[in-house]
Amino acid sequence: MKYNKFGYGLCAGLFACSLYSCSSIYMPNVPSAPMFTEAGEVYVSGNINTKANVSANLGVAVTDHVAVIANGSFVDNRSNTKDYAQKMAEAGIGYYTRFGKKNNRVFEVYGGYGLGTTSVIDKRSSTMGQAIVETQDMDFDKIFVQVNFSSEKKDALKLFGNRHDIDYGTIIRLSNMRMKNFAIDGLPVEKEDNMLIEPVFYTRMGLGKGWKLQYTNGMVFGFKSNTYLKAGYPLFTLGVLYKFGGK
Question: Looking at the whole model, is its pTM more than 0.90?
């Protein structure tokens, strides 16, 4: 698990650095990593973070090497200084295979398309209560490609007298993001686009009968130094997944 520990440290450092920069208008979701074994398997997961960003994933292994995935996310976070809301949906298709001496390593590659909408309201305190400083509204789409490297370890963790399987892996996602519409205070302004790299590291603990507990952490890097559509919002989530079916 050396590379996974390195990923945790890397993302923690990047998270600390990101606290000193303006946030992006885009908040990433949790990508799919089904770790399929054979045709007929179905993968379902749900994840949430401290900003109330809820991500859901669905995957189906159509054949022994081809799978389809669907992802969705929803966030509606309100505070004294900012209201942030985003909805996003994605779909994709890809290839998976198992390898290694124990056949316990998984390689997956997926490509797909997504759509979303984001609304941001910046506020400040006034004698009359909370006053709106600026509103930002964006409709966007994305084309993404991601590569997953995963590994399984049977009965790797002993907890409360029981042994649990441990999975860990890395997702490297490349997303071509484009604003379809963008307005500030209701007025159209110049649209932005960006190429984003989203590395995500995850660890899963088996709970029995297809259920697993999942922790993910990740970050976003942008190729362009945009004002709004740029890197930001590190990904730290906790969730559960369930996998069933097969031949």
Answer: no
